[in-house]
Amino acid sequence: MNDLFKLDYVLQAMKENDSNYVEYYNGSTYFKKVFSDMYVDVMKVSSYLKNKGVQKGDRVGIIGMNSYEYMILDLAVITNGSVSVPFPEKDFKGKIQTLSKEYNLKLFFADEKYVNDSEEIINLENLLLDAEKEDYSDLEMNEIEDEDNFTIIFTSGTTGVPKGIEVRSKCVQEWMEYLVDSYDLTEDDKIIDFLTLSISNARLFVYASVLVHFNLVLTNTNELLRVLALSKPTIMQGVPYLFETFYRTFMSMTQQTFKKRFNYRLYHVLDKILPSSMLRGLHEKVFKSLKDLFGQNMRILVTGSAHTDENLLKFYEKANLRVYEVYGINEVGLVSMNNPKAYRIGSVGKPFKTKTIKISDNNEILIKSDFSWGTGYINDENNSKKTFREDGYVATGDLGHVDEDGYLYVEGRLKEVLILSNGDKIHPRIIEDDLKQTNLIKQAVAIGNQKSFISCIIVLEDANIPVNKINDAISEINKRYSDNFKIKEFIIADSPFTVENGLMNSTLKINRNAVYEAYKSKIEKLYT
After folding, report:
1. CB 22 within 8 A of CB 218
2. 339: Cβ–Cβ under 8 A, 6 or more apart, which residues?
């Protein structure tokens, strides 16, 4: 593997690069720094950490929103052989006082709003000011070995308390190798990093911008649309729900004027009878507003962490904004990715050569690799034994298969399969995708485990949609299903499922258990 993709090389790559840059947007705050200037900030913070007693292998905790200080602290920690421990706010904000002891943190940095929770917490927002006068001229950095842990990541926590996993530095090198091999990246590329930096992939793209040499935009999710328009990035990673939201926004825009409605309908009529070469002008008019949403220069869109509906992928394909679906789990890391060289819609790409895939008798995806991110969960021996098997394979909990050409397909979570009281089985994703395709329903959760029939909880696209219209749409869907799987009842949700109300996790996946609990009494009424 290429040594230039090792964490050991991050500092040198930063120091020598005065062309590529990071842009940071946060409300009225904006600034731009070339990587060589960023290097100075990292080194000052590294010196500050050493003077605070942080040594190789020590754990440094971080909690807060995306910020330049967050990014610099993480870089300073990992490039000096220490262990960065970024805690997802949603899962840990109520446990601030216990985290230092529970995870044996040498230091703990947090946004100002958390500082009063504990005397041990250092204000992250003052980091650069605190480190401003540090002299790093004689600073000796620790060497980073392949087997050294560089971070702790956390599972999404949809079924309980998130589980911590220690990740080795050599896993970064493997991730970089496949990123570069999969996509034709250039120094003029610019990635927008808006997902919380507590997510490993968000930080990996920071490291990639330095090691692979391209530009970086750092912001927060709530500023995404504004920053897309201002920064005009070329690369973006996002969860499927995000791309669904962009699709719905675009479809709403096509209905704003008579001309837009006419052009949209005309294009879809002509597209069935004329070659695409004859429709370029009309295509550009119809999809211009969608490309504007992404900042006009977007060329690589990547999604993962949850299933993406094939019809949604086909829509983006038609718009010449292909979305590449990838697959990875916290316990193993990135497993496979679609890319321009090997792409098959509906699949998550071909598994990397460093990953061995086996499908179990119950269709669970099992993975073995020398580059698996984890070997067990911190302080959780029981769950470790269930996931990290004695034969070296990791039990992913995902259902799937590999086709004759080597493409991997993920069909849903094993634990989410609905088993009706008569023993019939169906994965809720099938029902939920069909419901969302009606364009009346934004979010859906199917119910039916150990029940006599299928029902669902739905979030409407528009609260004013009449119930009879929903009934008609569900009747059409039911024509595709056998009697046992027909949707017999539904509950209209009081409000959308969001991270803020706890019905989605930090990666924007619906937290089924939380939804079931929130609507427990209404569900019980359906089945009594």
Report:
1. yes
2. 182, 183, 324, 349
Which residue is it, tokens 């070995």?
Answer: 145
Three-state DSSP state, 29: strand
Handedness of CA 164, 170, 171, 176 (dihedral sign): positive
| pLDDT tens per residue, range 348-387 | 999 999 999 999 999 999 999 999 998 999 988 888 999 9
Straight-line distance from the first to the last Cα atom of the chain, in angstroms, rounded to the nearest whole number? 61
- Long-range CB contacts (< 8 A, 24+ apart) of 199-206? 199/88, 199/506, 199/507, 200/151, 200/153, 200/167, 200/330, 201/237, 201/304, 201/328, 202/66, 203/74, 203/84, 203/86, 203/151, 204/172, 204/175, 205/237, 206/71, 206/74, 206/75
Across 224-247, average pLDDT:
95
> Global pTM?
0.88
Which residue bears the tokens 């200037």? Answer: 37
* Closest-CA residue to 77 (of 33, 40, 45): 45
Q: How confident is the model at residue 423 (pLDDT cuts 50, 70, 90)?
A: confident
pLDDT of residue 382: 87
Mean pLDDT over the full length of the chain? 93
Is the pLDDT score of 154 beyond 70? yes
Give me the domains of the chain, ranges plus CATH numbers. Answer: 3-234 (3.40.50.12780), 240-296+299-414 (3.40.50.12780), 417-526 (3.30.300.30)
pLDDT for residue 413: 86
Q: What is the mean pLDDT of residues 118-126?
A: 88
